[in-house]
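queue> holo job accepted (S-adenosylmethionine)
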Amino acid sequence: MDDSLKAKVNAVHDYWNTHTLGLQYITDHNLEVGSPAFFAHIRPWMNPYKFPWIMERIERESQLLKGKHLLEIGCGMGYDSLEFLKRGVRVTATDLTPNAVKLAQRHFEIEGVKAEDVRTANALELPFVDNTFDAVWSNGVLHATGDTFRAVQEARRVLKPGGRIIISHFYRKPSWMYYMNRLGRENIEYKEEDPPVNQFLTDKEISALFEGVQIVEAAREHHRALPVRRDGWKAFLYKYGFRPVYNLIPEPLAKAFAYKLSVTGIKV
Ligand SMILES: C[S@@+](CC[C@H](N)C(=O)[O-])C[C@H]1O[C@@H](n2cnc3c(N)ncnc32)[C@H](O)[C@@H]1O
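queue> job finished
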């Protein structure tokens, strides 16, 4: 990695180590971090429970991957991995940040599931040999690493030939969030401070990341403007101006400006 990429990874690490995804949704600050009540309080805001298409994808993939070994890259508090584990998939859960890894480990203990491994790992230089896993799952991560192409190619490298690569929630452009982001200069999806890196790409640019992968599905998702927890005047305009009006747009037009693209492929 060159120095400029290292600097990005350090910034990404420092941000996410103190802003583990989920913390932004806590409204009861008396909850003990890592307690059963803590994970239950956050759960409704997390991807598989908030976005039905993510849970459907986990269910579909789990049927194909029962007893097989899946790597999750950027597991955060481990909600996605947990759902795979509950469905009989063997999981290695990884994240760049030690705080996420600790929380994911605790989360699995509380839920009574056992992962193959839970450890820190950088998506840009995965500590696994080539052709290790039957599947790689990553949700909302690779576009936020500082080098999206390298991250997808690392995921491909550690996959066995014929293995499944399932990458959800690349940020799309053009999309409603892309224009809002440019106009407002902030990502109102986050509570206080934006992550240091979030790359928006066109559908064509996203497909080009999957060199050596046969894409079997590319789905546009998150086409409606969703509730946010951010405060301030920009969030106010979003909540009471943009969101109710935007959500009246007919489905086909809204889909053209969907915020996210999720890609499933097979390593060739
Ligand atoms: C938006 S959060 C998503 C967390 C989780 N996938 C979820 O949906 O709940 C992004 C996660 O990616 C992790 N991350 C960012 N850069 C990474 C990298 N280079 N390697 C591994 N994980 C990384 C962050 O630490 C953070 O936990």
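queue> The beta strands are 69-73, 90-95, 117-120, 133-139, 159-172, 200-201, 213-221, 260-267.
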